[in-house]
User: Fold this.
Amino acid sequence: QVQLVESGGGLVQPGGSLRLSCAASGRTFSDVNMGWYRQAPGKGREFVAISGYLGTTLYSDSAKGRFTISRDNATNTLYLQMNNLKSEDTAIYYCKELQDWGQGTQVTVPS
Assistant:
């Protein structure tokens, strides 16, 4: 059974940084694409970044240049380094592996 557990969210001032983690189990982590998504209050879930199992990465326009996705296949952990955070980054951030989702971690950046 696949399990994804996010951590690292919190309250951070504008311009600050956070590093999110997603601990994965239940599937061969190194063989699958992994992604980060987010859902802001009153909005739908949106794509943030993806880490391909072949080493490629892809970012949304809002994440490009500020966020960095990475993975550690030895520990089955996906990361999202978020720098220069803005109030519009406030959302619940979810880790996704194929059709499976984690429970999310809250990121709050006050305006």
